[in-house]
Each structure stands twice: as structure tokens, then as C-alpha cells.
Design brief:
- Keywords: Amino-acid biosynthesis, Aminotransferase, Coiled coil, Histidine biosynthesis, Pyridoxal phosphate, Transferase.
- The protein is α/β, with parallel strands linked by helices and about 350 residues long.
- The strands form three sheets. Strands 2-8-7-6-5-3-4 form a seven-stranded mixed beta sheet, with helices on both faces.
- The longest helix is centred in the C-terminal third of the chain and has 24 residues.
- It is globular, with a radius of gyration of 21 Å.
- It starts with about 25 loop residues before the first strand and ends with a helix.
- The relative contact order is 0.16.
- The structure holds 4'-deoxy-4'-aminopyridoxal-5'-phosphate (PMP).
- The site of 4'-deoxy-4'-aminopyridoxal-5'-phosphate (PMP) has 13 residues, from helix 3.
Length: about 350
């Protein structure tokens, strides 16, 4: 490896990713624990069979039907009516955000975010040769608007990336912080709403700001609320001009015909999936209350996971939970651990294991 003429910044770097272990209870990557319904499976299988008959041809490069259905979903979910031309789709919101940095970042340009946050952001920056800068979040993981504006003035970023709700903390960012950042910069403001369907009542989506914020991009995904992580479908909503720029950097035919077909089917089943989302939100609140009840600190969460702590040796707690068959994530600031909300059975298994583990570690 070291003999290869690789870029200096990639030398010795390990590929990113949480461990994929075969464990009875997997609560480590914020997946939706509920598999698609049999009805969705049957409808998707029919759509795939139809699509496979045409796989000698390239897919619709513009993914027009899918983007039209995504726009319809956003209207139903957030009450924001967008034209198909204002929506873009790609292989997960990871690819969406890489395309954003390909288009708006690059050598001599800076991307800014606020830590702790999603650990892929610096990788998009590295891979597009964009300078990466992080400001700090407050102790409660919120972003202080004044601190954020100072960071913008200091670093003059071309792209500001804000996850709301944030991973790994679950923190939602108030919309007035987003508007203040948009006003303070000439760059793009990306609100990554991967977990937004799990937000608590009264927290509006940044989609509501699109009409009068031309440099705002809202990134979303079907991986979480839609329980569709394996299909790899992410999408963005923005002005038509912004989407046109993303269309310049995308690879031709980047989204396979099979992906487009199954995503359209999943969107037809959105109502069934939303009932599961409501259940997961309740489970999340119950889990946070339970963790607080046993004396732990818990970050307020608008997502489908909870960050909790603090532990003098979080690795030891993580390891012991794994020994009890429960895989969670060792991430975020030192002392904290993150657990995804699972099925009621999985959450019970986690709680029982944690009680045992805490006995061992106190
Ligand atoms: N944004 C955030 C904040 C995430 O946590 C994740 C996945 N863990 C993603 C984006 C990427 O999701 P996907 O590529 O599956 O859409």
C-alpha cells in the first residue's frame, strides 16, 4: 500500500465504517429495526421484475419519476410544495453531500461544521480537496448562533454543513440559526435532515425556508424513516439552479434502474412506514427517560437514537454490552455512547444488558 502513488492525505487511512458484526441485537448504525411489510416486498418484487426486463438499457439519467414522487412526499410530510426540478436523488445522502462538495467545495475552498457531528463530513471534504474546519457546539450540543457566526466570519466557508437532528447527539438546530448562517455567508448552507421524520412535534423542517433562501440545500434520506438503508436512496431539495449544478457533477446514470424502481414503490407505502416512525419516536422518549431514571446523562434527541453517558471507560462498557450480545456505537465525545432505537424486544434486551454491565463496572 505504501509503495503505491496514493494521495498523501489517504496514506495509512482506514476505510470509514462501524463494525458489521453478527450479533443478536444490532443497535449501532441508526437503522430502522422494522423490515418492509410483505405487501411492500411483493410490490417491490413486481417492480424489480419489470425493471430487470429493461436492464439492457441505461436508467433514466434524471430519475424523473422518483424525483416527482419525492417532491409529493415532501409536500405531504412537511407541507412544502416543490417542483420536481427542485429535488435531486442519489445513492444515499452520503452521495448527495459528496456531490454538494464536488460542486461547491474544492481546492482553496473551506467547508465548516460544528462538532461533535457526523463523522463522514470530513471525509467528503478530504475526498474533494476541500479544507475542513469545525466550530464547537455548547455543552448541551446546541449551536450557539453567535459562536457560529464568528466561525463563518473567520473561515469564510463555501459550504456550511449542519446535521439537524445531529448525529451522534440527536440535537435539532432551530431554524433561526439556519437563517442567521445563511445571511452571514455567501456560501451554501446544507441542512442534513437524515433523521428529521423522528423530530419532536413543533420542530419545523428547513424545507420551509427554501422559498426565500436561495443558497440553502436540505439533504434527506430514505435510509432511516423509510427503513430503506439497503436500497441506498438519498435526496436533496433546493432551488432549481442549485439542483442544476448538482446535475453537472453527478456521474452519468448514477442511480440504477432497480434503485429508482424500488424507491418509487417504497414511497407508495409511506403511510405504513410513518406509523412505525411514530412508534420509534415513543420508544426513543421512553428509552431516554429510562436512562435518566437509572442516573445517566442523556442528550435530548429528535432522532432515532440516544447519546448517553458518561462513563470513565466507555470502551469497557461498549465491550461488555457486546459480550451480552448487544452492539451499540462508541462515538461522540469521550465518555458517551450512542444507542439506536430498536424494536421493543431489542430495546428491552439493551436495557437488561446495560443493567448487568453497570453492575460489573461500578
Ligand atoms: N447524515 C447523517 C447525519 C447520518 O447519520 C447518515 C447515516 N448514518 C447519513 C447522512 C447518510 O445516510 P445515507 O447515505 O444512508 O442516506
Amino acid at each position: 500500500m505504501t509503495d503505491l502513488p496514493i494521495r498523501d492525505e489517504l496514506r495509512g487511512v482506514e476505510p470509514y465504517g462501524a463494525p458489521q458484526l453478527d450479533v443478536p441485537v444490532c443497535l449501532n448504525v441508526n437503522e430502522n429495526p422494522f423490515p418492509p411489510s410483505e405487501q411492500l416486498v411483493a410490490d417491490a418484487a413486481r417492480a424489480v421484475a419489470h425493471t430487470v426486463r429493461g436492464l439492457n438499457r441505461y436508467p433514466d439519467r434524471e430519475a424523473t419519476t422518483l424525483r416527482e414522487r419525492l417532491a409529493g412526499y415532501l409536500d405531504r410530510e412537511s407541507g412544502v410544495a416543490l417542483r420536481t426540478e427542485q429535488v435531486w436523488a442519489a445513492n444515499g445522502s452520503n452521495e448527495i453531500m459528496l456531490q454538494i462538495l464536488q460542486a461547491f467545495g474544492g481546492p482553496g475552498r473551506t467547508a465548516l461544521s460544528f462538532a461533535p457531528t457526523y463523522s463522514m463530513y470530513p471525509e467528503y471534504a478530504r475526498d474533494t480537496s476541500t479544507r475542513w474546519v469545525v466550530g464547537r457546539r455548547d455543552d448541551d450540543f446546541s449551536i450557539d448562533a453567535e459562536t457560529a457566526l464568528k466561525a463563518v466570519a473567520e473561515h469564510q466557508p463555501s459550504v456550511i454543513l449542519i446535521a439537524s437532528p445531529n448525529n451522534p447527539t440527536g440535537t435539532a438546530v432551530p431554524l433561526d440559526t439556519v437563517t442567521a448562517l445563511h445571511e452571514a455567508t455567501d456560501g451554501m448552507v446544507v441542512v442534513d435532515e437524515a433523521y428529521t421524520e423522528f423530530r419532536r412535534d413543533g420542530v419545523p423542517s428547513a424545507l420551509t425556508l427554501l422559498a426565500d433562501h436561495p443558497r440553502l440545500i436540505v439533504a434527506r434520506t430514505m435510509s432511516k424513516a423509510f427503513a430503506f438503508a439497503g436500497a441506498r436512496v438519498g435526496y436533496a431539495a433546493a432551488s432549481e439552479q442549485v439542483i442544476d449544478v448538482l446535475r453537472v457533477v453527478r456521474l452519468p446514470y448514477h442511480l440504477s434502474a432497480v434503485t429508482q424502481a424500488v424507491a418509487v414503490v417504497a414511497l407508495e407505502h409511506a403511510a405504513e412506514l410513518q406509523a412505525r416512525v411514530a412508534q420509534l419516536r415513543e420508544e426513543r422518549d421512553a428509552l431516554a427517560a429510562w436512562l435518566r431514571g437509572i442516573g445517566l446523562e442523556v442528550a435530548d434527541s429528535d432522532a432515532n437514537f440516544v447519546l448517553f453517558g458518561r462513563f470513565a471507560d466507555r470502551h469497557a462498557v461498549w465491550r461488555s454490552l457486546l459480550d451480552h450480545g448487544v452492539l451499540i456505537r462508541e462515538t461522540g465525545p469521550d465518555g458517551w455512547l450512542r444507542v439506536s432505537v430498536g424494536t421493543p424486544e431489542e430495546t428491552t434486551a439493551f436495557r437488561e444488558a446495560l443493567v448487568e454491565v453497570l453492575k460489573e463496572h461500578t
